[in-house]
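Run log, item B.
One chain of 294 residues. Sequence copied directly from the ordering sheet:
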Amino acid sequence: MIPAVPIQSIDLSFLGIHDVTVCVKRDDLVDPVISGNKLYKLKYHLDAFKQLNKHTLITFGGAYSNHLHATAYAGKTLGFNTVGCIRAEAHELKNLTPTLKDCVAWGMQLEPMSRSEYKLKQNSLTAQAIEHKYPETYWVPEGGAGELGVKGAELMLAGVDQTPYDVILLACGTGTTLAGVIRASLENVNIIGVPVLKGSKWMQQEVEQYLSAEYSNWQLAYDYHFSGYGKWQPELIEFMKQVKAQSNLELDPIYTGKAFYGLVDLIKKQIIKKGSRVLFIHTGGLQGFRSETF
């Protein structure tokens, strides 16, 4: 059972915003380690893994992957083997990020995959070779994607009274969480996803594959990637510092910082209209920013 999390009201008057109400669903507090959307997206994958009586869970991610971090911790806690297919050359794994150091400490085996092979994921020759190394494998898509991940993401709105809100906004990496939130949303609530990757027009189709035609209450805001995944500028860091100091809300520059910056900008541009009531979903990811100092 995934525990309930608080919804925090945020005063954005220090940013010159007085006519839009903003609340934050603090899914970063859902678990001390597996925070944010990762616990939700892993839930049904882990159920299937157990039901199929598999021995090794294999998945994909990069150097700062919240998904890898959550999967490795779940393996340690629940007692199963985990393998991470890492988007990196072998020599790049000689100097691990704090994220990957945690994964190794929790027992995850790291397997490098070149960028070209990584694009092919489970269909690559590298993935096939990796599968042969480990017994009774179960593959989880990158980011916990797939129908089971979307089904899990629907739980992010379970128990949430949506009637006070006009807009729900969240960060997007693969579109899985966004698809689940859309499926669980009320039709009169506008859902806005903020992709954190550059050149993410593909996400529209990625999300649509999980939706029936009746879902038309959503959109993507593409302009807040800050040059690409895992990239950011001083402007974003200063914005995050200001939000933390004034609102006691900690964000990360990979996901939630970009999305919250996008939220404020959309309000200032009146794309989110005056008088709107917004629910921002904090999708976690704070562990990925430990190498920087506020």
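Observations after the first pass:
- Residues 196 and 225 are 4 Å apart (CA to CA).
- The two ends are 34 Å apart (CA to CA).
Flagged for discussion on Thursday.
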